[in-house]
Amino acid sequence: MNPLIPILIDDQTPFNFADLRTEHFPPAFDKTIAQAKENIQRIANTKEEATLENTIEAIESFREPLDKVSGIFFNLLSANTNDELQAMAKTYSPMLSELANDLLLNAQIFSRVQKVYEKIESYNGEQKQLLDKTFKAFRRNGALLSEEQKNELREIDKRLAKLTQEFSDHVLKATNEYVLFVDSFDDIKDLPSASLEEAKSLAKQKNKENSWAFTLQSPSFAPFLQYCTNESLRKELWFAVSSRGLKAPNDNREILKEIAQLRFKRAKTLGYKDHAHFVLEERMAESPEKVNTFLQDLLKHAKPFAQSDVDELQKLKTTGDLRPWDVAFYSEKLKVSKFNLSQEELRPYFRLESVIEGAFKHAELLYGLSFKERKDIPVYHDDVRAYEVREGDRFIGYFYGDFFPRESKRGGAWMTNFLEQGTWSGKTLRPHVSIVCNFTKPTESKPSLLTHDEVRTLFHEFGHALHSLLANCHYVSLSGTNVYWDFVELPSQIMENWISEAEGLNLFAKHYETGEKIPEELVEKIKASSAFQAGWLCVRQLTFALLDMGWHSGDPSKVSDVESFESDVTKDLRFFPKETGTAISPAFSHIFAGGYSAGYYSYKWAEVLDADAFEYFKEKGLFNKEISSKFRNFILSKGSSEHPMDLYIKFRGRQPDPAALLRRDGLI
Prior knowledge:
CATH class of the domain at 348-528 and 603-664: Mainly Alpha
Structural class: alpha+beta
Strand order of the largest sheet: 3-4-5-9-6
Radius of gyration: 25 Å
Shape: globular
Strand content: 5-15%
Number of strands: 9
CATH architecture of the domain at 348-528 and 603-664: Orthogonal Bundle
CATH topology of the domain at 348-528 and 603-664: Neurolysin, domain 3
Distance between the termini: 63 Å
């Protein structure tokens, strides 16, 4: 039997990756897509009067087997890909897009949805939310269009599915194809020993015995830019990072322009002013005008501080103007001089295994969870670790951790589900959750020792995981992280706060050789430096957010040159002259391949929520049971069973205070 059909016997039976082969996917897709199409026709042709059960709940579950197959497939495509999977994605992504349109553009089904929607006030709780979400999904995706417009929409969606996959493939290939070989040890002698060891090992693999090799994977290039004393080498690597997607055969410029234009055309066809207006109708922020006001207000506060940050760095560079490839290098020097604190001084206290246990300990103290490693559970790569999660005797779910970079994995860090909590085939199942990262790898002489930034990333993704693990909804589509995108970062970003507090750090930060707890002096330095370069970092995030809004507000068909357009949009956020041959957009996977289009602002939006929420914890106690229970019951468990602002008010007792973020970052 094809091991993908069925994927799970029940929620407590992990998927058997050991028996999975790439060639299993095409027949699995073909079969489950056919099943989903049959279900669409069954719903459309039902003779009985439309009800919540035979229409709305039938739509909710019409592609259950396919969701399980595609969940496994697309997670592997991101975390452990190969040429065959990438080719399949180009075949099946348009088919999945077409399937969604088969449902959402079906006039018979929409007529049934409308009839149930007319009685929406007779429903309560999740049923009402599901009904509202379903009706809006049809309306927002073309159910009211003419047949000609529906066909146009189908073609747009098929093309977009193909283009976004090509964009992602190009970024991955551009990242993997570049290697910088360094022959002089004097240029890199200040790099961390683990970075040097990894670079030496990679050079050996590339048959460069007397060199060190550096790549565009973050654990490789980030310490290089921080510690390499040779400015010309820093410049070379910075240019390589900043020019991904600009050169053949991985040039993404025409692809991203077409993506932006198709999104605009799609929004106009649906009756919206542009893509941003379409997206933001279903966000807490509600409109591009409100987003831009929010971002510009932050910029007004942050920019003077950012300028001061840059001026401080310029004073350290005495041999010319500060350039972008100098920022990380002189920032590290400034941090050491200001706080007598270096990332490398902290690394020995952040062994990966200890940090993982620290995250688990936070989950225990806050929510009563326990994590037990299960080495008997098959995983999709040897790097992956699997854990069973319980609350006392109650099974909560499975948790997977995939922590190290490899050529088969895209960059960055993310959380995902192999199985979401909710009702599957009439039975409520618990989730199977994964976090995927690209952390510093262990070497022959040292374990994986993380930077404080990597610790922050792990806690961030673990916060997303808790959102899924603690979900308690009836419907899968309302469960866990299936919330407004400017709300979804609250559970993740709030977890970052504990790693700058003594109570949090003392739970796990201990020297990997001696077992000594992190000294109080270092904890104080971490806390004192927590707002270091907050202005610069805020403006950096605002650059991404405003660039995203630039691409998706208005008509992008007027854009002829990507670099010029980008330069114009970001001119008020730059502190250095524009470097010819570099651009953000051609490798900006978040917005062109990752679902964040017209939504990158949500990171800063959610920072307001998390800063305000964490002030509540600080008032009552970082592990206060009353506050953590409220956060669990009103935020983590509820998904989108209620409007996010209503949930936040139930947790906090009021709306969020926008000044909380400015207070935390020292920007007022």
